Amino acid sequence: MEDKNFLREIKALDHLIINRLSVDCISNINRITPSQIHILEYIINSPKKEVYQKDLEKIINHSRATVSSVLITMEKNGLIKRITDNNDTRIKKIVLSNKALNVFEKSKKNINLIEKECLNGISQNDLCIFYKVLNKMKNNLQRKDDIYDEII
Prior knowledge:
This protein is mainly alpha-helical and 152 residues long. Helix content is 66%, strand content 8%. The protein has helices at 6-24, 34-45, 53-60, 64-76, 98-118, 124-151, and strands at residues 51-52, 80-84, 92-96. The chain has a 3-stranded antiparallel sheet with strand order 1-3-2.
C-alpha cells in the first residue's frame, strides 16, 4: 500500500464534498451552508418540541460563538427566528420558518444525490469496513478528549 497521509486524504475528500455542495446545493437565492443544513435537520427531526442554542452547540460540536454566528446568519436570511424563553430570558428558542423547510428539502435532495455519487462502485462490504474504521478513529479521538478533560 502506498504511504499516504490519511488526514490529508480525509481533508481532500472533505474539500471535494464541500465544493460539490457549494455548486449543487447552494443556489444564489437561498444560500445555505452544511452547518445550517445540519442545524435545520436536527430541528426538523428533533424529538423535543423546543430546541435551544445550547442544544445545537452539543449536536453540531461547535463553540457557542460559532453556533451563534450561524444562527444570526440564518435569522438574517429568514430561515429561523430566535425567541426568548418565557422561563429564562438568557436562552433563545429556535423556530423554523416555512422558507427553512423548503430550502432544507431542496438541499437534502441534492445531498442525497452527491452521497449516491460518492458511493458509486463501492461494495456494501467495503462500506461496512469504512464505517467500522471511521468509528474506531472517532472513538480514539473522543477518548483523547476525555483524557485531556481529566487532566484539566
